Amino acid sequence: MGKIIEIRELYNEKINDITKSKDNWLSFLKTASWNFKYSFNDQILIYAQRPNATACADMATWNNKVHRWVNKGADYIFVFSKDENSKYPFELVFDVADTHNYRNTPYKLWDVKPEYETEIIESLEAKFGEVRENNNLVDTIMATTNNMVVDNIQDYMTSITKYKQGTMIENLSDEEITPLVYQTVFSSVAYMILNRCGINPEDYIAKSEFSYINKFDNSNLTVLLGTAISDISEMGLREIAKTVINLQKEEKNQNRTFVNNQKEEYSNSKENIKGGNEYDRNRIQESRGLQYAQPNNDTRETTNREIRTNEATLSKEQQERGIHNTTNELQTSRTFEGNTRKSNEDDKTNSRENGETRGYNRGIESKRPNDLDKNDEQLQVDSRRTDNERTNLQLEILTEEEQKQNIAEAENASVFSAQHINGGTKSEISTPFYFI
Fold first, then answer.
1. Residue 409 has what pLDDT?
2. Domain count, the chain
């Protein structure tokens, strides 16, 4: 009955499937870690349609901010619309694998290099509180994940306990449910952050840490649990991404300064030679000891193209999702118990099933009010826009030529801005530091 119905059914099928086993859940977390800027419900849809997606954005973002166009015939990915006034319940995004630019160069996703680790450790501690042990990046990620979960988990607990009826945790008290939630959220958030940083999470987190995942056995509970994990992991990953992007900018500026200095030294050397006597100049030319470089006068041809308006019905605004900010200072006296040891599943025991989860026995000290129980709007994804006239999704996709026009306009605007800032000097156009 149309694409809308099909996508809804796919969403319902996948959200019920991911908590059936630990392997299913970990497979989902790997995809979600690469798409951490999306909401949990969008992460479900991305995983259901393109489990190997590493960086998704809408067409406007690829064109105008990253200066790449979507390949002809590329498979689009449906996510929920962020525009409540849109006549469609979904919008389209595309994975980086389905894009390219004029030079056909790959889009470089941010990654954690060894030389970045000290800065990342410092930024995580500054944002989420100092930790007792921060000998390496893994220790710091595990410890700050603990801080984030402890500070935020209570915001989700009221809603989780509200929807326990008819599930495997129905007969448990709130005090018994909390440790289960803590362990699952902590392990999942740490798993996502480690995975996105290029660290194998299974070296540090055993599968037994996810032994409670099948107890969240209805879609409401899964959405609530997943939203907590998605929100908290985004906090940590955004901080890491921001640090990496800043370090990459510094590297690029240093490289540009080095190149400019080399050019200046060469120019000064050339001027000194020009100022020598006729005999010296002739001798140098005869011996071909110096080859003059021909200046590159090639300039990018810029033409003013008229942008066709109303070509796409998709939103051109980058998705931004509200997350819980940890603005309150974290106490430095917190302890962290053994979260960074190597995992050996054969040696694991089920001792934590009595509710004494790792780090949880310190108690939850969140001072922020519960702000999740707002008509449980995150649970309403299945009931939106089911009108018959909206069952046929017809979203317009720009052609490659139309996208190239958009990119050209965006690049021209970048050149104009650079000329204005640099006093009329045309700067090289390069991919902006914009992380998907």
1. 87
2. 1
